[in-house]
Amino acid sequence: MTNPLSQVRSTRDTRIDVIRAIALITIFVNHVPGNPFEVLTSKNFGFSDAAEAFVLISGVSAGLAYGLKFRPGARLATALKMWRRVGVLYLAQLGTTMATLGIFSFFALHYGAPELLEKINIGPVMEDTAAALVGIVTFGHQLGYNNILSMYAGVLLLLPALLLIGSRAGLLHMVAASGALWLAAGLFRLGPPNFPNEGVWFLNPLSWQFLFVIGLAATMHVKRGGKLPVHPWMIGTAAAYLVLSLAWVQVPLWGIDTSMGLPSVLTGFDKTYLSGPRLLHVLAAAYLIAVLPQISGLARRPTNNPLAVMGRHALPVFVTGTILSMVAQAWRLVHEPSIATDIAIVAAGIGAHFALAYYIEWYRGLVRGSKSVPAGPEVFMGPPLRPAHHSRPHRAKPEMA
Fold it and tell me: Do 131 and 195 contact (CB within 8 A), yes or no?
C-alpha cells in the first residue's frame, strides 16, 4: 500500500511547513496562559511572538499560491480565489468564537463559576447580547485569543488591490503602498471599528498587512529569479538587533522611554498597530533564517516529518488548537493549577495537533487512492428475456460503416 505521505510533491519547500508548525504549537502554548511551558516561547526572547511569525509565513505561502498567478487574464479568477478563502476564514472565525462561548458557558454553569462569563471579552455578550451578536458576525466584537483569523481575512480582502499595484508598477511600489498604509494606520489610529465597544480590532489588518506583503513580495522576487541581499553588515545588524531585543525582554528594560518624540508606531511595542520594533524583530529573525544555510537547513525536513505534516494543514490545526486552548483555559480557571496537570494539558493539546494533521493526511491519501482505482468491467445484461410464445424470428441488420 502506498504511504500517502510519500505522495506529497518532492519539490515542496518543507521549511515553510516546519516553521509554520512551530508557530502553531507556540500559539497554542501561549493561549494557555500561566502554564510552565509559556516561558519557553518566542515572546520571552524578543519583541515579536508567534503571531508575527505566522503572518509572515502566511505571506510567503500567499506569494506561492497567488502572487505569480495574478497576471493579466487571470487577475479576477485569482482575486476570487483569495476572497473564497476569506469566506472560509470567516466561517472558521465564527466557529471558534461560538465554540469559545459554549466552552466558557458550560464551565460557568457546571462549576457554578459565573465569573468565567466576564473573561476574555465575553462580558459584553452577556450584558448586551443583541449588539454583541451583531459585533460577532461583523468581526466588530472579538473574544480574547480569537483574533488571528479575522485579521488574516481582512488582509486577504486587501490583497488583490495591493497585487494589482505590484503587477502594474512593480513589487517595490506594492511594498511602498503597503508600508504607507501601515504608517497611516499607526499614525492616525485607523482600523476596522469594534462594536459595541470602542476602538479598533486587536490585530488591525491595516497594520498587519505590511508584514504579510513583505513576505509575499520577497517570495515573488525570489520566484522570479531574484535573490535576497546577503551582506555581512546586514547579517551583523540583524543579529545585533535580536541580541538587543533579547536583553531588553530578559533584563527587562521596558521602563526605558524610547519614543524620542517619534510616533509610537515607529518606536513603541504596540501589537494592535504592529509597531516598528516588533516588525523589525520578526524581519531580522526571518532574514537570518533565509540567508544563513546553517539555520535554514535545520528546518529543511523530509515531507513525512511530523512538523512538516502539521504545517501542511495549518487552518484546521489552528482552529482545533484554538478550541483546545479555550477548554484548557476554562479548566484552569475552575481548578487549582498544578505542574502535573499543566504538563498533561499542554502535551495532550500538542498531541491532538499532530493527530489531526496525520488524520487529514491519511484521509486525503485515501481519497486520492480511491480516485485512482480503475473501474471494474462493465457487465451488459442485455434486454429482458421475452416469454417463448412471444418470441419472433430475429433478422440481422447490416452494420453501418
Answer: yes
